[in-house]
Amino acid sequence: MSELQAIIAQLPGIKLMDILDIAIVAFLIYKLLPIFRSTGTGRIAWVVLAVIVISWLTEVLKLHMLNFILSQLLAVGLVAVVVLFQPELRRMLDQVMNIKFKTLLGMEKPEQEMMPIINQTVKACETMSRERVGALLVFARSSRLEEYFKTGTMIDGQVSEQLLRNIFFPRASLHDGAVIICDGRVAAAGCVLPLSESSRISADLGTRHRAAVGVSEVSDAVVVVVSEETGAISVAVDGMLKRHLAPQTLKKLLCHELCPEDTQPEDKLVLKLRQKLQKKEKGGKVREK
């Protein structure tokens, strides 16, 4: 109670810069918190949190011996965390460094150009599914995935059904790797992705599906998989795999994940107005629904 009264007593002394300082810290925490949703960075956060809680408890309960041992361990704890979680720390730093400034400020423009890309992707996946051609497509979002570009071949080409089908043609040299689509373009092909070690993945799924789940665990990417054995289409997001998707379902899912929600009603309105104009040009009557 005395601590609460002390805090209330300090409120009149808070300055404008103090409020601005708190607001900036809260904003950065809110924007950077999704990074810790991935499995690797989540483990680091839980380890650090557990050490802090145990240290606090030993001090409150006056467990002097345990507190002394823990304080000695904390002296080398930072080095141990760096050694044990080196891959996870590297990925987390890559994610932080690769976040776009406009995305951090919430000023990113609506990605209306994603709709043609989604349409071309769905057409390619539908054809490859029918022909039983394996495919692995990664849509990069705030995590730029530059570290995986180096494992493949840089392309920087326009996304089209023909290009995707040519890349994953069974006799093509890049068909075994993953295609990474970044900023609406095919950035690289033949890329090697990290495999998931999750026990929740079905035993009948192969390397492509484990790679799809793996990269979705360490980033916010949206990954599309076409099975070579069954032709089934799957999508991995946030470490979860959605299987046996129809082309229409795939399109809706990609629109939901890759297109801003506030642009979808506008797209429907534009489509409706375009249909009305076409009817007027043909001399037909326009009926309002």
Strand content: 5-15%
CATH topology of the largest domain: YojJ-like (1
Treating each run of at least 4 consecutive H or I residues as one helix, how many helices? 12
Distance between the termini: 63 Å
The CATH class label of the largest domain is Alpha Beta
How does this model look, in words?
The protein is elongated. It has two domains: 2-98, no CATH class; 114-259, YojJ-like (1 (3-Layer(aba) Sandwich). The longest helix is centred in the first third of the chain and has 22 residues, at 39-60. Strands 2-4-3-1-5-6-7 form a seven-stranded mixed β-sheet, with helices on both faces. The N and C termini lie far apart (63 Å). It is built from twelve helices and seven strands. It has 289 residues and is of the alpha+beta class. The protein has helices at residues 2-10, 16-32, 39-60, 64-84, 86-98, 101-104, 114-130, 146-149, 161-167, 207-217, 247-258, 264-281; strands at 135-139, 153-158, 178-182, 185-191, 222-226, 233-237, 240-242.
